[in-house]
Write a structure and sequence with these properties.
This protein is of the alpha/beta class. The protein contains 1 helix and 8 strands; from the N terminus they run H-E-E-E-E-E-E-E-E. The chain has a 4-stranded mixed β-sheet with strand order 2-1-4-6, with no helix packed on it. Strands 3-8-7-5 form a 4-stranded mixed β-sheet, with no helix packed on it. Bound molecules: copper (II) ion (CU). Copper (II) ion (CU) is lined by residues 76, 113, 115-116, 119.
């Protein structure tokens, strides 16, 4: 290889070294993406006022931040049936619990307060 050919080759190599990490990051599985944060506010014996149905994608990582926002002294807890999120300790008003979940491939799951029947909703995991 002549010196003339060497310089463009070195430049190409430098570009490849700089660009490779970004390209690899794009190729990574969805599990490696930053987690999605979902805030759940417990008030008046509901989650977010309406116990909404929550939609997730297969393999999505979700960071739940669950806060008891009752104005009176009501204890709540948070579980997701079938996702290995158990009731945990009762949460007093003002307390929060953070839970990280990697969504399964598909399915419907109930999220609930373990103390109050009817306080909870559905999580649906499906491809869009
Ligand atoms: Cu409750």
């Amino acid at each position: 290889m002549t010196k003339r050919a060497l310089i463009p080759a070195l430049l190409l190599l430098a570009v490849a070294v700089v660009a490779a990490p970004a390209l690899l990051a794009r190729l990574r599985a969805p599990e490696a993406a930053p987690p999605r944060t979902v805030a759940l506010h417990m008030r008046e014996y509901t989650f977010n006022g309406t116990n909404p149905t929550l939609q997730f994608r297969p393999g999505e990582r979700v960071h739940f931040i669950v806060t008891n926002e009752e104005e009176s002294n009501v204890l709540h807890n948070f579980r997701v049936v079938g996702m290995n999120v158990d009731c945990g300790p009762p949460m007093k008003p003002g307390e929060r619990r953070e839970v990280m979940v990697t969504m399964p491939k598909s399915g419907e799951f109930a999220y609930t307060c373990c103390t109050h029947p009817g306080m909870g909703g559905k999580m649906v995991v499906a491809k869009k």
